[in-house]
Design a protein that fits this description.
about 40% strand, globular
Length: about 260
């Protein structure tokens, strides 16, 4: 079975042109999937009783240019499509109230043993997890990113309390926010994001310094954001692909709607 939840886009979900941001897509996917897990009695507050913690290690999303705007109602649909000993793949689709799909993709989830600090098998909870293989994405193999190209920018971010989640780790959406914070406004106005991939590799905590290195890849316009901790360990990698914008979903379009 799948699960659906309805949301209304808030001001925090939009860019300067009232369009839904990639960060909001990640947010609503995670929130909807968490609600689904709560219905299955497998939410974070359920599994912590057996010293387990859900960890998302990879996220892949594809975007339609015709997106959602501020105040739009959207439906997020999630379902679990594939499970192995250590990995659970959960798909999603996001649609506007008029039925137009704006994004789809999937995430890879693992269980962490909070006492041993290593991955735990999913086998004990597998009977509680409905799987819909007929709706599986064509390929769940880990995406390989293009090689670094021209260095465009490098900057640092000091981890602060608002970056943390309930586990005391840097919230995984924070890495995407840091990666996108230097986006050129003129480029964003002229281009639409078409694909996004994130690999989370290492935990980061309050007081750490994250260095974000942005390079343009050979398959331009696409960008690789590599975020490293103070100890030079790579914490996360964000890869984004863009295309020239042909549909102007902006404040003017928004004002003309009923």
């Amino acid at each position: 079975m799948n699960y659906a939840h309805h949301y209304s886009l808030t001001a925090a979900d939009m860019d300067t042109r009232y369009r839904m941001t990639p960060n909001a897509v990640l947010l609503y996917y995670q929130d909807c999937w968490a609600r689904y897990m709560a219905c299955l009695n497998l939410a974070a507050f359920d599994i912590i009783k057996i010293n387990r913690l859900w960890v998302i290690t990879e996220f892949n999303a594809w975007f339609e240019e015709q997106t959602a705007l501020w105040s739009d109602d959207i439906e997020v649909i999630v379902w679990n499509s594939e499970i192995s000993t250590l990995r659970l793949y959960a798909e999603f689709r996001i649609r506007r109230a008029d039925g137009v799909e704006v994004a789809h993709g999937y995430g890879c989830w693992t269980l962490l043993d909070t006492e041993a600090h290593r991955l735990a098998p999913l086998t004990p909870i597998q009977p509680q997890l409905p799987i819909l293989p007929e709706l599986t994405a064509p390929n769940h193999k880990k995406r390989r990113f293009p090689q670094d190209g021209t260095l465009l920018q490098q900057y640092t971010h000091s981890v602060n309390p608002i970056n943390l989640d309930f586990n005391g780790h840097v919230n995984n959406r924070t890495y995407l926010s840091i990666a996108m914070q230097s986006a050129d406004e003129a480029f964003m106005d002229a281009h639409a994001i078409r694909a996004l991939s994130i690999h989370w590799l290492k935990e980061t905590f309050r007081g750490d310094i994250l260095t974000c290195r942005i390079t343009e890849t050979s398959s331009s316009p696409s960008f690789l954001h590599t975020l490293s901790r103070s100890d030079d360990q790579t914490a996360a990698i964000v890869y984004s692909e863009w295309a020239p914008r042909t549909i102007q979903n902006d404040v003017a379009t928004h004002a003309k709607r009923d």
